[in-house]
Amino acid sequence: MYPRSLTKNIQSWLEKREILILYGARQVGKTTLLKMLFKYVENSQILNCEIPAVSDTLESKNLYAIKTLFGNKRIIGLDEAQKITNIGSILKLIYDEMPEYKIIATGSSSFDLANRIIEPLTGRNIKFRLYPLSLKEIEEKNNWLWILNNLNNLLVYGTYPGIIDLDVQDKQVKLSELSGDYLYKDILVYEQVKNPTIIRKLLKALALQVGSQVSVNELSNLLGITRQTVKKYLDLLEKSFVIFPLESFSSNLRNEIKKSWKYYFYDNGIMNALSGNFTPVENRLDTGTLWENFCISERIKINSYSKRLINTYFWRTYDGAEIDLVEEKDGKLNALEFKWKQKRKITIPSSFSEKYGVKEMKVITPETLYELINN
């Protein structure tokens, strides 16, 4: 079992009143993390909200029935909480009328949980995000040498906890299943998307465009749907933790690309399953793209788990100067470039350096990967 970086953060809130919300994509380990947390916590239990008896009791809002459901336990985990109708108002009721209980709710769909929870629970909740395994979590269980020896496989098959230790054939089967409707079925159920084929085609198009600027117009023409529908689906896929965007960074420098977006996947294995390409790294032409997606998603995990309030962007000019990742915190900028093989010395573009006063750009290669997760 892999240790999770969120464990200590969540534990520090167990003695406080706030309701804890644990978000994350399907199969990233939310239930396992909940079990790990509760293993050494007395008076605790986990309730599966997909069980009708659990959902019916909570939806009744009958305080006596809810107390009977909770029994003599005082710390309650509500797994798959998005299954409960009006879950936000129910949690608010428990918080206000039953203060003796501490609630941790998990859900695989942020847009659904957010819509139903955030407004009723304003000032009453603390949110956490769980991702596929980070390199720090893998290192803690296996060690850094294991990561270096298995780096090629991580680039192709990703870091989902239930997949990382399988053999190659089983990894392909599991990833193909996960990357199907299952990963984003909340969108199909709650948003009543009538044609899941469009979602699959959109995801495949994005998987083939990782690292490139995405044109909503081109996607609209490719898929035969309106620009508004493309934007809606991109937003839903982002909120169900499949993809995340990077916006172009710009101020008033004349040559900078403005109001443009790139999309990345939280997991390389999902990206490769969607594009239908599990070819080994040594035989691929898109290794640079695999490396870029892997490193940027890893950086997103690091910043999130470390509670760094950082804005992330890419930067590019019309004449081709570019930076893969620009981080902004408290008005200060950090520039990172990702290269699978560094054939020549890479320096920060002079136009960026002169405009923003950033003198150095960190280049992350397999040899310097450790710096990515420790800075």
Q: Which key phrases capture this entry?
A:
globular; Arc Repressor Mutant, subunit A; 2 domains; Rossmann fold; alpha/beta; 375 residues; 18 helices
User: Number of helix segments?
Assistant: 18
Question: Average pLDDT value?
Answer: 91
Task: Report how far apart the termini are.
Answer: 26 Å
CATH class of the largest domain: Mainly Alpha
**Gyration radius, in Å:** 22 Å
Within CATH, the superfamily of the largest domain carries the name Winged helix-like DNA-binding domain superfamily/Winged helix DNA-binding domain
At the fold tier of CATH, the topology name of the largest domain is Arc Repressor Mutant, subunit A
Number of strands: 11
DSSP helix fraction: 40-55%
How is the largest sheet built, in terms of strand order? Answer: 7-6-8-9-10-11
Structural class computed from helices and strand pairing:
alpha/beta
Contiguous runs where pLDDT drops below 50 for at least 5 residues: none
Total discrete domains: 2
**Order of H and E elements:** HEHEHHEHEHEHHHHHHHHEEHHEEEHEH
Structural shape: globular
Brief digest:
The protein has 375 residues and is of the alpha/beta class.
What can you tell me about this protein's structure?
The protein has 18 helices and 11 strands. A 6-stranded mixed beta sheet has the order 7-6-8-9-10-11, with helices on both faces. A 5-stranded parallel beta sheet has the order 2-3-4-1-5. Helix content is 43%, strand content 17%. The radius of gyration is 22 Å and the shape is globular. The chain has helices at residues 6-11, 30-39, 52-60, 63-70, 87-97, 110-117, 135-142, 144-149, 151-157, 168-178, 185-190, 196-207, 216-223, 227-239, 268-275, 287-305, 350-356, 369-372; strands at residues 19-24, 44-48, 75-79, 102-107, 125-130, 243-248, 261-265, 311-316, 322-329, 332-338, 362-364. The protein has 2 domains: 6-130, Rossmann fold, CATH 3.40.50.300; 135-372, Winged helix-like DNA-binding domain superfamily/Winged helix DNA-binding domain (Arc Repressor Mutant, subunit A). By secondary structure, it is an alpha/beta fold.
